[in-house]
Amino acid sequence: MNIALLGYGRMGQTIEQIAIKRGHNIVLKVDKDDTDYDITKADVAIDFSIPNVAFNNISNCLNNNIPVISGTTGWLDNYDNAVALCEEKKGAFIYASNFSLGVNIFFELNKTLAKMMSTLEQYNVSMEEIHHTKKLDAPSGTAITLAEGIINNNPHYDGWMLDDKADKKLPIVAKRIEDVPGTHTVTYQSEVDTITIDHVAHNRQGFALGAVIASEWIVGKTGVFTMNDVLNIG
Ligand SMILES: NC(=O)C1=CN([C@@H]2O[C@H](COP(=O)(O)OP(=O)(O)OC[C@H]3O[C@@H](n4cnc5c(N)ncnc54)[C@H](O)[C@@H]3O)[C@@H](O)[C@H]2O)C=CC1
Ligand SMILES: O=C(O)C1=N[C@H](C(=O)O)C[C@H](O)C1
Predict the structure, then answer these.
(1) What are 195-219's pLDDT values in tens digits?
(2) Whole-structure pTM over 0.90, yes or no?
(3) Catalytic residue among 89, 135, 156, 169
(4) Average pLDDT of the chain?
(5) 63 lies in which domain range?
(6) Cytoplasm among the record's keywords (predicted)?
(7) 185 and 129, same structural domain?
(8) Is there a single domain that holds both residue 195 and residue 211?
(9) What is the CATH number of the domain that holds 181?
(10) Which residues, in sequence order, are CB contacts of 35 under 8 Å at separation 6+?
(11) Residue 92 shares a structural domain with residue 108
């Protein structure tokens, strides 16, 4: 498969290594100063760039009929526009806040736990995410997906709040510590005990492998998909 990398930073470079190991060709590497490139030489594009350019990168792929995978976080104000464009162009598109197989299992575990805890009013839920100091957005996309998994399954919460507390809002604390690839912890606390579930990424290989698997899966398909479709879970 011929792959275009849109964003050649930490994730773009890790994806390149894994894609080559799986027998693919990287035919295009696009980074911040590359404006004039031909996306049509790729079978699929993988966008891991920065929040304010992701939608533009995705639109360019959809306008040229190239299936596109995006892992960039912090651009979701435009997610519905990407879906509409994909439908209009009969293209193929997947966004995931986290492509790692382990985190996608963790997302399902989080929803199941949220359902189980929803009748136990003595527990308060909170979340912590820890990432490296170069991260541009907070809270992380993964933390937002986890929060949505709780809010949609527990009527005591109707939203989330970063570094603050308010009635019915799930509090999220975002910490930035050098070199941490990504740690997410969900905590249920009562006066008598604490339940926690967490996911700790040891490096970026898991995110990259999931993105390559998603790009292998999407070629030849039409529609807007999620990692649950790719992994057949949920
Ligand atoms: N969904 C997932 O599984 C994961 C998502 N991420 C997200 O992916 C994004 C990238 O993460 P990293 O690679 O760690 O960041 P990074 O900062 O190392 O790489 C981003 C790259 O995008 C480049 N860029 C800037 N403007 C561009 C443009 N117009 N077109 C193409 N590239 C451009 C930057 O120069 C940089 O090299 C972030 O939003 C991060 O939150 C990161 C890891 C996993
Ligand atoms: O910026 C990162 O590094 C990561 N970003 C994603 C997020 O915002 O959830 C996924 C992963 O946690 C690493």
Answers:
(1) 999 999 999 999 999 999 999 999 9
(2) yes
(3) 135
(4) 98
(5) 2-99+205-231
(6) yes
(7) yes
(8) no
(9) 3.30.360.10
(10) none
(11) no
